[in-house]
Amino acid sequence: MLRARARIDLGAIERNCRRLDAAAGDAALCAVVKGDGYGHGAVPAARAALAGGATWLAVATANEASALREAGIDARLVDLGALSPDELDVALQADADVVAWTSGLLDAVAARGGGRVHIKLDTGMGRLGTRDPAEATALARRAVDDPALTLAGLLTHFATADDLGDGFLDEQLARFVDWATPLKRDRPNLVLHAANSAATLREPRAHFDLVRCGVAIYGLDPFGRDPAEQDLEPAMTLTSYVAAVKGVQPGESAGYGRRFVAEEPATLATVPIGYADGVRRGLTNNADILIGGRRRPLAGTVSMDNVTALVDDDVSELDEVVLIGEQDGERVLAEEWAARLGTINYEVTCGISARVPREYGPDDGLEA
């Protein structure tokens, strides 16, 4: 029995991709597998996504691109992130499309023998990309005119697509359409892409030629509520086991700082998983775990290697504990952790550390 493990349902990732591919209509599906597949494992997640209908993959670093190629994955790949000169070498050697927003970036790609580039317009995200549509157009034309470069696409990124009550997506969309439409008219083969998971599900006008879905392919709700509302299946189940069960009397405590002190006779279960595994200290006295299909509240400080929970006499040593996932019809979602921590669901899954082994299944003919 492992002290902690994350079980990844590759079949769920495949089915989520089929759902998103259908939602995208005529647009192709790009599965975003950066951040080690949002904590799920980039290579097995990529294979499952491709089996589910994705035809592109996206990463954020050169080493992520290289790792996919080393694993034998040959799908079209785009690196969405900023790249230093050394990283640009690695990305181009991995046959990844790269994103550019300055003439210096185009010069750097050309100086390395060329490659496929996508020009990025910053329509309101405020990070990478040029804010100036005229500059973006000039860069696109430069890429067309330079025989070392292939202008593959035009893109932007939405800042508030996951906020259903916010209209800023419409403003960004209008800016992108105004800029990209003339270029697309002149070069119909250009791939226009803007939609993340949330925009894919809420706004068909943002689909263009390609949608870039990350969080949703892992069965996480891009709107931070419940994946079932979007017909998505969470792919990760985080488990541990009961290592010890002991009684506590009034006045006795558990954990650093005595942040749990018993007010009446009670029973505590110690579970050997903690913040070094990704169970954040912010969940101290602020989360439930599942044992025997029932919710059991954490009691006391989350430590590096252990948590304690209030239980009843029906709990025994070696019982399975589900921290994220489903057990006997009861669920604890990553969205619940996120709400308790004041963060987002995919920070939760990205935060499950490498100390927690990933196990892949079911056996759907996909190699992990």
From TrEMBL:
Coiled coil: none
Binding site for substrate: R127, M304
InterPro entries hit by this protein: Ala_racemase, Ala_racemase/Decarboxylase_C, Ala_racemase_C, Ala_racemase_N, Ala_racemase_pyridoxalP-BS, PLP-binding_barrel
Record PROSITE patterns: ALANINE_RACEMASE
CC cofactor: pyridoxal 5'-phosphate
One GO CC term, this protein: cytosol
Catalytic reaction annotation: L-alanine = D-alanine
Signal peptide: none
First-level EC class: isomerase
Residue numbers carrying N6-(pyridoxal phosphate)lysine: K34
Record's keyword terms, sorted: Isomerase, Pyridoxal phosphate
Residue stretches making up the Alanine racemase C-terminal domain: 235-361
UniProt pathway: Amino-acid biosynthesis; D-alanine biosynthesis; D-alanine from L-alanine: step 1/1
Any one of the GO BP annotations: peptidoglycan biosynthetic process
Keyword Isomerase: yes
Family annotation (SUPFAM superfamilies): Alanine racemase C-terminal domain-like, PLP-binding barrel
Residues annotated as catalytic: K34 (proton acceptor), Y256 (proton acceptor)
Any one GO MF annotation of this record: pyridoxal phosphate binding
Family under the similarity heading: Belongs to the alanine racemase family.
Listed HAMAP family: Ala_racemase
Record's protein name: Alanine racemase
